[in-house]
Design brief:
This protein is an alpha/beta fold and about 160 residues long. About 35% of the residues lie in helices and about 15% in strands. The chain has helices at about 1-25, 30, 45-50, 75-80, 90-95, 110-115, 140-155, and strands at about 35, 40, 60-65, 70-75, 105, 125-130, 135-140.
């Protein structure tokens, strides 16, 4: 009986998810990404970052090289795990989450590719959108949730849709 219930539940979920997946397959990361995100230099030390808090009220930041190439992602919760006695000598590039653990994709990547390959935890994860080799934007868990909700409502998904 349990197996039958599971199969029926799975089939029902698949039937309702198919139209949503079809709508989302036409949406690209560039349609939902936040452009010009607040970044932090990889050469900063953890203490240097903490001494000059970013102007933006975010909890997760793309870490970039001097040339603007994305190195990874660092969250405030990750920085909190760095022992105080080594914060002045530990660079952000050493503690950030690097690819493939953080998702990096091109602007034309379908949103469905990201949904199937990332676990997007608010305040900890970002999808780095890179074009060509330079950070073009980020997709946050909130951006993904908004796209899913708009698609489910049958509304246009993208930055020009009302927030």
């Amino acid at each position: 009986m349990a197996i039958g219930w599971f199969l029926a539940f799975t089939a029902r979920t698949e039937l309702t998810a198919a139209p949503l997946r079809e709508k989302l397959s036409r949406v690209r990361l560039e349609d939902v990404m936040s452009r010009s995100p607040a970044t932090t230099p990889g050469w900063y030390t953890v203490q240097g970052f903490l001494d000059t808090p970013p102007q933006a009220p975010f909890r997760t930041f793309p870490v970039v090289s001097f040339e603007g190439h994305p190195i990874g992602v660092v969250s405030l919760s990750r920085l909190a795990r760095v022992p105080e006695n080594v914060r002045t000598s530990t660079r952000l590039e050493a503690v950030c989450t690097k690819p493939p653990a953080c998702f990096v994709a091109a602007p034309e990547t379908p949103l469905t590719d990201v949904l199937g390959r990332t676990t997007q935890r608010p305040g900890q994860d970002l999808v780095l959108v890179v074009d060509p080799g330079i950070l073009a934007g980020v997709v946050t868990p909130g951006d993904l949730a908004r796209a899913l909700e708009l698609a489910d409502l049958g509304a246009r998904v993208g930055r020009s849709a009302a927030s």
